[in-house]
């Protein structure tokens, strides 16, 4: 989706994650949701429109991304959704003072392998503070060489693979990209491997 007025591009991963959010809209009213690396914030905006209490975040070093979050909120009639600068891997006052959360959203945050450890550091910190929370994430398989399985194990996190067809996101217009090459999008839910000693 390209918005000519604002020049925003929504990547296929965001569309697939937004579809998952929409498919689970009945569970969202009153839930506290944080979107990380939000950019255009499609999944977070959908969650907010479905009644969740949403906070959008992107890197504090990328003011243009934070502005994209704000623009998306305004265009979608959500002027009161807070937008925070949160940089992955950095324990900042903003991260420390976050209210409790139930769901973390992240579309295509596993883009550059050099960021994976920082992302999981932040996710682990949030899940430790909110042991029953889940991280809903979609990612594009760009290389057969990388996997986050070993990092998840290192950070004592587990993941459940969610087949796209299970929430109607396997349609060509949702999960495909106009970019060259075939793009495989995956969805998973990450949570603490052990919570409350179970």
From TrEMBL:
Keyword set, alphabetical order: Chromatin regulator, Cytoplasm, Developmental protein, Methyltransferase, Nucleus, S-adenosyl-L-methionine, Transferase
What coarse category fits the chief subcellular location reported for this protein?
cytoplasm
Q: Which reaction does it catalyse?
A: L-arginyl-[protein] + 2 S-adenosyl-L-methionine = N(omega),N(omega)-dimethyl-L-arginyl-[protein] + 2 S-adenosyl-L-homocysteine + 2 H(+)
Where in the cell does this protein reside? Cytoplasm; Nucleus
> Its GO biological process terms?
chromatin organization; methylation; regulation of gene expression
Gene Ontology annotations for the cellular component aspect, listed alphabetically:
cytoplasm; nucleus
Q: InterPro entries, alphabetically? A: Methyltransf_16, SAM-dependent_MTases_sf
Record flagged with keyword Cell inner membrane: no
An MF annotation (GO) of this entry? protein-arginine omega-N asymmetric methyltransferase activity
Indicate the transmembrane segments per the record: none
Pfam families, per database record: Methyltransf_16
Q: Does the keyword S-adenosyl-L-methionine apply?
A: yes
On subunit structure and binding partners, the annotation says: Interacts with HSPA5, HSP90B1, TUBULIN, UGGT1 and UGGT2. Interacts with TET3. Interacts with STPG4.
Against PANTHER family, the record matches this protein to:
HEPATOCELLULAR CARCINOMA-ASSOCIATED ANTIGEN, HISTONE-ARGININE METHYLTRANSFERASE METTL23
The entry assigns this protein to a family as follows:
Belongs to the methyltransferase superfamily. METTL23 family.
Q: What does this protein do?
A: Histone methyltransferase that dimethylates histone H3 at 'Arg-17', forming asymmetric dimethylarginine (H3R17me2a), leading to activate transcription via chromatin remodeling. Maternal factor involved in epigenetic chromatin reprogramming of the paternal genome in the zygote: mediates H3R17me2a, promoting histone H3.3 incorporation in the male pronucleus, leading to TET3 recruitment and subsequent DNA demethylation.
- Protein name (database record): Histone-arginine methyltransferase METTL23
Q: Which organism is it from?
A: Ptilonorhynchus violaceus
């Amino acid at each position: 989706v390209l918005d000519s007025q604002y020049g925003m591009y929504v990547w296929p991963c965001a569309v697939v994650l937004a579809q998952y959010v929409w498919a689970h809209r009945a569970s969202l009213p009153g839930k506290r949701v944080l979107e990380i690396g939000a950019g255009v914030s499609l999944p977070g905006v959908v969650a907010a429109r479905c009644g969740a209490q949403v906070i959008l975040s992107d890197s504090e070093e990328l003011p243009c991304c934070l502005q994209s979050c704000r623009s998306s909120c305004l265009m979608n009639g959500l002027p009161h959704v807070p937008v925070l600068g949160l940089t992955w891997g950095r324990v900042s006052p903003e991260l420390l003072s976050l209210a409790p959360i139930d769901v973390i959203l992240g579309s295509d945050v596993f883009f550059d392998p050099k960021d994976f450890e920082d992302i999981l550091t932040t996710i682990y910190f949030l899940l430790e503070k909110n042991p029953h929370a889940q991280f809903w994430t979609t990612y594009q398989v760009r290389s057969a060489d990388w996997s986050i399985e070993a990092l998840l194990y290192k950070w004592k996190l587990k993941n459940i693979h969610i087949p796209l067809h299970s929430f109607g996101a396997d349609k060509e217009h949702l999960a495909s990209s106009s970019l060259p090459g075939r793009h495989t999008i995956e969805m998973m839910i990450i949570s603490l491997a052990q919570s409350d000693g179970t």
